[in-house]
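Appendix B, example 12.
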Amino acid sequence: MRDGYMLDDPRFAAWKAGHRHDPDDRASWWRPWLQTIADTTARGVVVRRARIVSEPVSEYIRFEYDITFTNTAAGEQVSWLPRREATDLCLPGNDFWVIDDRVAMIHHFSGDGDFVSEDVTATPAVVKLCADAFEAVWARAYPHEHYRPH
């Protein structure tokens, strides 16, 4: 839900310097996380990621958009929701993952977007809040192939 994460990430720095991944050169951009997603989706598990973004998008979001083809190549479904279209949605205050509707992993970032910590909870009310929020966003969001950042 942030407009920037880990702004000192070497991949982001390389992108700002003009580097772009070649979709046809998979070996140059494939990484362990993508293999994990590929293995997971190969088992029939659906992996979805929703991104809520301010528009006009930040430089970091433009970078994320440009590299999202790697996520979709691994089998992840990615959708984008402009923040202005989320005004009436109840959203948790932090980024999160919901796993099997039983566990929520909450991610904490500094004001500058650096990863600080994560909490894992199976508290039913927290998991439900996160799962319901995600579904509400997903229902409105634009699939990656239909979203164009501006």
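The radius of gyration is 16 Å. The helical segments are 10-16, 26-29, 32-42, 59-73, 124-140.
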